[in-house]
Amino acid sequence: MKILKISFALLLCAMVSSCSNEDDNTENLAGQTGTLIIKFDNGVGDQDFIFGTSYTKSNNESFQLSTLKYLISNIALTDDEGNTFMYPSEKNVFIINEANANNAGEIYVTLDEVDAANYTNISFGLGIDQDRYALGAEGQGNFLTTAEAEGMMWSWATGYRFTRLDGTYSSNTVTNEALNIHMGSVGTSVDNYNEISLSLPNTVVVREDKSPQIHVVADIAKLFDGETSVSFDDGYAQVHVDATTTGVIANNAKGMFSVHHVHNE
Fold first, then answer.
1. Is the pTM value of this prediction over 0.70?
2. pLDDT at 18 over 50
3. Domain match, 7 and 76 both
4. Which of 59, 147, 201, 236 has its CB 3.0 to 4.6 Å from that of 152, i.e. a possible disulfide?
5. Quick check: 184 and 159 in contact, CB under 8 A?
């Protein structure tokens, strides 16, 4: 009987210790931050994107690009308890420029001082939302100058280009015609800002001693063959400030992002 009592006491002690450790681990996350890296990787269908390479659309039109850029903002993370961490607004806008990709074709966005948690979802905006736009030049800090230098502002209208694709296209009727897809909002009259929400294939563990990575793939083909398939010959070779054509491209763009995998390091 004494042995039974001792065994029960040891078991109870172990249970209490285990619970205590779990509580300690949870409490230790309070105030703890870490670094999170988001890798944007542009492709076309199942192919890597390469400047100057010809890619074929669903209607047998082909295109090749010399410029590929887009704006990402309002990155937010949701953890396994339903809490959302929004990266600080003043730093939460980025230009993803394929010209800046590494040898693997990846563009890194590094988020520092991210709240420690176990994250299961990432969301972000494609473009600039109206609240940020309403802050004007003074409220947008250095990013306005950066966007102008990168050619991501309209030169003949008010507002940002959210995506910029420049190159040429060919069809059954033309060869190497100019292709310029410049989708964005035009002031407050045309609002093409959209938010994308992506579930993570496994939990992203952010801690002060870890720098996890989320590999986001952008399928550029879906800009043209997404929810709506468009024809360059039918007016989609030159997309600028028109509400209809920019709206179609903006809607297609919502479906071009996916999370390929996650690294917890």
1. yes
2. no
3. no
4. 147
5. yes
pLDDT for 64 beyond 50:
yes
Helix, strand, coil % over all residues of the chain, rounded to 5: 25, 45, 30
13 with 62, same domain?
A: no
**How confident is the model over 52-78, as a mean pLDDT?**
97
- Determine the Cα–Cα distance for residues 41 and 59; give it in Å rounded to an integer: 25
What whole-number distance in Å separates Cα of residue 1 and Cα of residue 244?
82
- Mapping DSSP to helix (H, G, I), strand (E, B) and coil, where does residue 32 land? coil
Domain match, 2 and 61 both: no
**Per-residue pLDDT, 10:** 42
| Alpha helix stretches (DSSP H) within the chain | 2-28, 130-134, 136-139, 142-149, 243-253
Residues 77 and 207 grouped into a single domain: yes
Residue span of the structural domain in which 170 resides: 33-263
Residue 19: predicted pLDDT: 38
110 in the same domain as 223: yes
Give 195's strand partners: 125
- Report residue 201 as tokens: 């294939």
